[in-house]
Specification:
The protein is α/β, with parallel strands linked by helices. It has helices at 47-52, 62-67, 71-76, 80-83, 96-100, 127-137, 155-175, 193-204, 222-232, 250-259, 268-274, 306-310, 313-321, 325-351, 355-365, and strands spanning 3-10, 17-23, 26-30, 32-35, 57-61, 89-93, 105-107, 112-118, 121-125, 141-143, 182-184, 186-187, 211-213, 242-244, 263-266, 277-280, 283-286.
Length: 377
Amino acid sequence: MSFAFKLLKTDARSGARLGVITTAKGEIPTPLFMPVATQGAIKAVEPERIAETGVRILLANAYHLHLKPGEDIVASQGGLHRFMNWPHLIITDSGGYQVFSLPKREIEEEGVRFQFEQFGKPVVLSPESSIAIQEKLGADIIMAFDECVAFPTPHAYAKQAMERTVRWARRCAAAHTRPDQALFPIVQGSTYADLRKDCAEALAELDLPGIAVGGLSVGEGLDVMREVLSYTVPHLPRDKPRYLMGVGLPEDILAAVEAGMDMSDCIIPTKYARSGMLFTAVGRLRITRPNYRRDKYPPDTDCPCYTCQHYTRAYLHHLFQADEILGDTLATIHNVHFYQRLMERIRQAIAEDRFLEFKREFLQGYQREDKKTKNVR
């Protein structure tokens, strides 16, 4: 397999880890953050602009790509990399989160059946079909099919879902045939320490190239997320990359890195950008507000991204007021760059054994609260 992870060091006073993932497409340093290209695209931005921000890995969703255009079409076009003109790494989510967020579905041991039809047939997703879809799509990293439960969930049901997730992970491993793809299982167990421990230990026995933690960022809040990670991470393999799924506010990423996670993804930077919300070192800036109508400064005065080097707050304000798609494009480029720069600074801080100082300094200058902004996955 052309996939390897090397742990370079751990921060002296926290669980923060510095590492590198090596694949046939090159090396990627960790901790890392992955923008989400659900349908095989970052909305409103061409891949070349995304790569210019430093991104070397994107997340696409197997469930959505299965619905349209279909994995057979993607495969006929040479696979997802060629289809979306992205030469770097791609990871595909199995669709578990999307499946279990739907209001009408039937969960069986075989898989999940949907209450709507595609091409005149009911849609059924199983561990085996999820792997088959992802193998045809051709991503570099693929995810096992899991059951993600809502928050809160009673212990009894969370236990059933966790045990089913383990059984499904074993079936995914058995169905996986492509040695050029790294398969990651997903730790579930809601907010229960015993379930998270049991799930992590059972999945570690599969000895797959990496491991993910799912079922967070579903409404539990930062404090609960920290608590769950505190009793989950100790049971994760030390020599495998650890991927926290769906977590994406800067304060959440810092907490995840402190706990010892290596990878994360979220729609937040791109979704917020399309509503005119820009991330800066001093907090979030809603460019649609009237006070930016005549503002001659760049969106972030300390940012070297394409948007901040060429455009003013007044211009971006105008674009959003005029409902011009260029506003979405420029805001997205900035937010993606902000996140990549944040991860660079985090990695540097870990290398210098000053991660906790960096985290404190960052949060002191960063305005977390914005009551007009909804936290989304």
